[in-house]
Amino acid sequence: MAQKADILCIGVALVDSIIRGFDPEPVSASGYRAVSGSLKVGGEAVNHAVAAARLGMKAEILCSLGADSAGDMVLAYLNQAGVNTDLVIRAEEHPTPVTTMFVREDGTRKSITNLAHRYNFHPEQYASCFSGTRAVVLGSLFRAPFDDPGIIFSVLRAAREVGASVFADTKLPNFNVLALDDLKEALPLIDYLTPNEDEARYYTGKEDPDEMAEVFLAYGVRNVIIKLGSRGCYFRNAEEALSLPPLPVDAVDSTGAGDCFMAGFASEILRGSSHKEALRFANACGAICTTAVGAGAALKSREQVLRWISG
What 3-state DSSP class applies to 291? Predict the structure, then answer.
């Protein structure tokens, strides 16, 4: 069978309403001001797929969109980025999720989700489409559709059965709450797990990155990357441990930085890079992402990232 895709990204697709410089002091009985407001396409699966495509990977996405204008916006963005959208589901009964993001001056953010984010489509029903894919990226564990242990296990098992490497990002829960024990059958099927520090602390109860990684490894995950934001990242598996510093950057908006990190790491692993080389490349992808508003605005190409690394 001919290769279908380098990377198949599965998970959330949405529209972000990004508000920068929000002033909490009202200017009228019901009015507030902000520096800027913008609409950007996002969601973990979208961010992974678009970044992977821009980095030269043959990328495909499996996600669910409403039959609405927000869904049209997401689909147009994916097609423009060169992502294969054959597996995009358009659902009449569920709207496309829209997230409101409040971005601070230092680029950090808070988000507001709504009931549309709760909709669990069933990616395991499309397992026959995994064949020929080199890597499957889940974005993200503990959020719909991957807040159901049965769905998680079925998707991971199907990916491993066709020989695909499995990369899984994580998120803090927003509706359904799961613990690591709920996923004890699925976690050994994951090749690379990439929580950020807050997520790792929440799920492991540990404060030290090495101890966090040790908990995930004890559940059977093969490789763990703890994303440490301004402190870089920490990698651990059964044979090696690596700490990589961040690249200096003037951050504008951290939205999607972790997703660009994931896409950069997965794409370099597929190219045969060592863990250290792939982590350095991923750090650069995440740093570049923070230099513009919106997850997909700044990262353009693999050549751009290599230039950034070389200084």
Answer: coil
Q: What residues contact residue 125 under an 8 Å CB cut-off, 6+ apart? A: none
Average pLDDT by stretches of 10, the chain with 311 residues: 81 92 88 92 95 98 96 98 97 92 80 84 95 95 95 98 97 93 98 97 98 98 94 96 90 87 98 98 94 86 95 76
> Is the Cβ–Cβ distance between 268 and 278 less than 8 Å?
yes
Q: Are the C-beta atoms of residues 123 and 98 closer than 8 Å to each other? A: no
250: Cβ–Cβ under 8 A, 6 or more apart, which residues? Answer: 291
Q: Taking Cα atoms as reference points, which of 21, 26, 11 lies closest to residue 108?
A: 21
Rounded Cα distance between 279 and 246, Å, is 10
DSSP 10-67: EE--EEEEEEES-B-S-SSSS--B-SEEEEEEE-HHHHHHHHHHHTT--EEEE-EEES
Q: Are strands 59-62 and 98-103 parallel, antiparallel or unpaired?
A: unpaired
Phi, psi angle pair for 235, to nearest 5°: -115, 140
| pLDDT value of position 194 | 98
Residue 159's alpha-carbon distances to 86, 132, 138, 237, in angstroms, are 18, 10, 11, 21
Cα separation values, 90 from 73, 147, 158, Å:
12, 21, 23
